[in-house]
Design a protein that fits this description.
By secondary structure, this protein is an alpha/beta fold. It has 2 domains: 3-216, Rossmann fold, CATH 3.40.50.300; 227-276. It is 33% helix and 28% strand. It has helices spanning 42-49, 71-77, 93-103, 109-122, 138-150, 168-181, 194-200, 218-225, 239-245, 279-287, and strands spanning 3-12, 18-28, 30-35, 57-62, 65-66, 78-81, 156-160, 186-191, 203-208, 211-216, 229-234, 248-254, 257-263, 273-274. A 6-stranded mixed sheet has the order 6-7-8-3-9-10, sandwiched between helices. The longest helix is centred in the middle third of the chain and has 14 residues, at 109-122. It is globular, with a radius of gyration of 21 Å. The termini are far apart. The relative contact order is 0.15. The protein binds adenosine-5'-triphosphate. The site of adenosine-5'-triphosphate has 13 residues, from helix 1.
Length: 296
């Protein structure tokens, strides 16, 4: 059982942006969701774990290995699907994977052939193996991204915002693929999409403005809000009034009316109804400590 330990990690970019502020996390095998809004610091953290940049202070260890001092060894154990995943458009999937396998040290040609075939089957791209990567749809590109991340049997896999832009059926397909690989490996899924974490992750953290606001099991987060969430449909122009009176954590437009969700120890009355807490409530409740999550 591998374990990734992040201790008091901080990073300020030369332009003065503090992207990571004393981040500490413990991540074991299985699917771990790192959830946060745009600009929260997720990619900065992923890039640091992936040895692509250094933090100013703090440490990351994978089992007993200090990541910043053993970059080459970490890279050999790492599969990474970055947010901006560049592809050579004219090269086909089979040739590209063969090349990546060669770079990762699979020297024997028949071993590589077997590996490439099994990876293409795993991500359901075998029938498209001869097509140029530039012709792939968004979902196919992401599935190819997973295939390349799996070369070398990594003990740590990082996927950075992988489902953004995928249509619902491709997203489901991608979820199925990720859930299969999360069994014996540490998989960190960085995302701003709450549904990704609800669907896949047994452990999670919420990060905002470079700080970890919550970490634990999604279920525990939801339980902590049970009996504290109330909802009400209002007119759009009433929002500011409600925001000044209640702890509004989220709003959704439904058929032109605004459905509000508030967090409150007692029933606020005034037409509010109790609602079943979900992971989106946990997310908005946490990030509302740092930013105003309600923008119309
Ligand atoms: N190389 C860089 N130089 C300067 N500032 C940066 C750099 N990379 C990121 N930032 C800033 O650091 C903060 C955190 O960015 P980061 O990309 O880590 O967040 P994120 O959670 O991945 O966001 P997103 O979901 O938008 O990708 C942001 O304010 C961003 O503008």
């Amino acid at each position: 059982m591998s374990k990734l330990t992040i201790n008091n990690l901080s990073k300020t970019y030369p332009n003065g942006v503090k992207a990571l502020n004393n981040v500490s996390l413990e991540i074991g095998t299985g699917m771990f969701g790192l959830l946060g809004p745009n600009g929260a610091g997720k990619s900065s953290l992923m890039r640091t774990i992936a040895t692509l940049q250094d933090a100013d202070t703090g440490t990351i260890t994978l089992d007993d290995l200090d990541v910043s001092k053993n970059k080459q060894e970490i890279r050999e154990k790492l599969g990474y699907l970055p947010q901006d995943f560049g592809l050579y458009p004219r090269i086909n999937a089979e040739v590209m994977l063969d090349h990546i396998a060669q770079m990762k040290g699979v020297g024997n040609k028949s071993d590589r052939k077997y590996l490439v075939e099994s990876l293409l089957n795993k991500v359901n791209l075998y029938s498209h193996r001869k097509k140029g990567l530039g012709t792939y749809s968004g979902g196919m590109r992401q599935r190819f991204g997973i295939a390349q991340a799996l070369v070398g049997d990594p003990s740590l896999i990082i996927v950075d915002e992988p489902t953004a832009g995928l249509d619902p059926s491709e997203r489901n397909r991608f979820y199925n693929l990720l859930s299969e690989i999360g069994e014996n490996t540490i998989v960190i899924l960085s995302t701003h999409i709450v549904e990704d974490v609800t669907t896949l992750c047994s452990n999670m953290a919420i990060i905002c403005e470079g700080e970890v606001l919550m970490q634990g099991k999604p279920k525990e987060g939801i339980e902590s809000l049970e009996g504290r969430i109330y909802k009400k449909a209002i007119q759009k122009d009433e929002l500011n009034e409600y925001k000044s009176t209640y702890n509004v954590i989220s709003t959704k437009l439904i058929e032109g009316k605004l459905s509000l969700r508030v967090e409150s120890e007692q029933n606020p009355e005034n037409g509010f109804e109790p609602a079943k807490a979900d992971l989106e409530d946990v997310y908005f409740s946490q990030i509302s400590k740092k930013v105003d999550p309600i923008t119309l």
